[in-house]
């Protein structure tokens, strides 16, 4: 009898994974994942079967992972948390009799926030700017309502070659609701090779510094900078 | 020279902590935290100094942690992630010359989601229903805008004795925008002693099942139930 672990490996480094995630990978006979993410857990792959595919092959990967899990212990990995824009949803949609366990991880916005300071300290939302499976009009509507509600906003998949100007348009929507000096944090490759942290404001925001591997976090009306650290106060009286 | 780690220990079990968080606790000479959370890491406290305080003593705890970190290695702990309604913001606001490192963890909504299935698979927001530091009118405004934007909604601090009816009022706001059969997941004590998982709908939601230790997750217009599992589809074509 096999089993399928759906594992969020966290931002990328082995030390940013939970112990439960690490044990699931160690216990697994097969590891399934996107090629780039498989590399991140290379140290744990010795003696294991690996099934890796390129981008946009999510359905193939999930199908294979479920098949293999009928008589083997298998882990399918996502970076961050598998339940936030990761593989958990697809696996659960496709699953029949297989035994599946979701193992949570540190999602990308939380990893980026820890590097920027504490921008997510109050009510916040995550919006993916990828329109592959979500109409762009709905994405813009969500950005507008989040801006109006003074939520701290984290943009996942903020910019790709196919939609270079979405991010700028979404930032422009937010500009109508927040001050020019609202802090904006950009983190590329949070807690992995090539990490880069950029602090900006709504006024000076330069979308060309953002790529698909970045997380963009826009502060709320109370967010402020202190010694290059981005802080959203919870509201404690000091 | 000392150092202060601001550690998110995850939902509660030692195996749900990242390796980096565990190493920070092991390295620390002093652990600071809310009494209830200190108990969760009891196994790691041998030979260490402990400074614990009760609820609503956050400022005292942070002050003490910062003082001690001038010449000792100190960890101040939050459950979940310290950057989401945790101690990171207050520490960074109060910090002067002290060396501070934020170590991210698995936040409560992500842990609860993993137990429910994959409810957070698409754009989502977190709202705290505690009005200790946020006007209730602003909380309700955020709930309304999140409902209108079809965000999956996670309620932190959903219900306490001082405000027993806020949760019902907020659910009523959402009912105006979503179908009666929209799935609602309640998780009490996610991944710790006393764990309880309740699946309901907007129509049948019973707020008396919810306490301060619960997480409430309301699906978006596409969220569905399958074999008692709550799934928000990302949108892949199957």
UniProtKB/TrEMBL annotation, chains A, B:
Domain Tetrapyrrole methylase: 3-205
The entry's keywords: Cobalamin biosynthesis, Methyltransferase, S-adenosyl-L-methionine, Transferase
Keyword Methyltransferase included in the entry's annotation: yes
MF (Gene Ontology): methyltransferase activity
Highest taxon above the source species: Bacteria
Record's keyword annotation contains Methyltransferase: yes
Record-level GO BP terms: cobalamin biosynthetic process; methylation
InterPro entries (alphabetical): 4pyrrol_Mease, 4pyrrol_Methylase_sf, 4pyrrole_Mease_sub1, 4pyrrole_Mease_sub2, Cbl_synth_CobJ/CibH_dom, Precorrin_MeTrfase
A Pfam family per the record: TP_methylase
Pathway of action: Cofactor biosynthesis; adenosylcobalamin biosynthesis
Stated name of the protein: Precorrin-3 methylase
Organism, scientific name: Clostridium acetobutylicum (strain ATCC 824 / DSM 792 / JCM 1419 / IAM 19013 / LMG 5710 / NBRC 13948 / NRRL B-527 / VKM B-1787 / 2291 / W)
């Amino acid at each position: 009898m096999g089993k399928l672990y759906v594992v969020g490996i966290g931002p990328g480094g082995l030390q940013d994974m939970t112990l439960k995630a690490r044990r699931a990978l160690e216990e697994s006979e097969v590891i399934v994942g996107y090629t780039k993410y498989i590399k991140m857990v290379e140290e744990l792959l010795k003696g294991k079967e690996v099934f890796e595919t390129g981008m946009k092959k999510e359905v193939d990967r999930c199908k294979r992972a479920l098949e293999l899990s009928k008589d083997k212990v298998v882990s399918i990995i996502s970076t961050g948390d598998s339940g936030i824009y990761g593989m958990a949803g697809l696996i659960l949609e496709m699953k029949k009799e297989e035994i599946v366990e979701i193992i949570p991880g540190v999602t990308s916005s939380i990893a980026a926030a820890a590097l920027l300071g504490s921008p997510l300290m109050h009510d916040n939302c995550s919006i993916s700017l990828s329109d592959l499976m979500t109409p762009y009009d709905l994405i813009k509507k969500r950005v507008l309502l989040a801006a109006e509600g003074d939520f701290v906003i984290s943009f996942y998949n903020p910019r790709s070659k196919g939609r270079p100007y979405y991010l700028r348009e979404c930032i422009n929507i937010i500009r109508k609701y927040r001050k020019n000096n609202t802090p904006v944090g950009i983190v590329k490759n949070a807690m992995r090779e090539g990490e880069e942290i950029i602090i900006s404001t709504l006024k000076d925001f330069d979308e060309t510094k953002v790529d698909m591997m970045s997380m963009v976090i826009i502060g709320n009306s109370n967010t402020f900078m202190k010694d290059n650290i981005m802080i959203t106060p919870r509201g404690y009286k000091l």
